[in-house]
Design a protein that fits this description.
Largest sheet: none
Helix content: over 70%
Strand content: under 5%
Number of strands: 0
Order of helices and strands: HHHH
Number of helices: 4
Shape: elongated
Structural class: mainly alpha
Distance between the termini: 24 Å
Radius of gyration: 19 Å
Length: 128
């Protein structure tokens, strides 16, 4: 038990020192990434629900796509991470693909590229 406390204290101290050395800007940026990734995940969940309910209301798909696009804009403006930029670009392409499919009358578009890219953003933004 004492060893766990010592390890926990060492980890906490290292985290505090790292925060002090890297500054609040890096920590704020990382937190923004996590918050935005969470918002994207929520939007993707709503998109999945909207697609499954498309026969009732196709406008829900467009609302979900708009929400994802907004979060992508926020995320793209706060990152200089190459992996994250690629995942954002992939998700943007997926959103546009689904948007085009819906405009062409597809009420059950393939959203796999969106869910895959959103999962990648989640991985990149997850600390550790």
């Amino acid at each position: 038990m004492k060893r766990r406390r010592t390890i926990a204290l060492a980890v906490a101290t290292a985290a505090a020192v790292t925060t002090l050395l890297t500054g609040c800007g890096a920590l704020d940026k990382a937190m923004d990434c996590v918050k935005t990734a969470d918002a994207i995940a929520t939007s993707v969940g709503k998109l999945q629900q909207a697609v499954s309910n498309a026969s009732n209301d196709v406008t829900q798909i467009e609302e979900s796509l708009n929400s994802i696009s907004t979060e992508l804009g926020n995320l793209k403006n706060t990152t200089d991470n190459a992996d994250l930029s690629k995942a954002v670009d992939d998700l943007t392409k997926g959103v546009e693909s689904v948007r085009t499919a819906v405009k062409n009358g597809d009420t059950t578009p393939d959203i796999a590229p969106i869910t895959d890219a959103a999962a990648e953003i989640g991985k990149v933004c997850t600390p550790g």
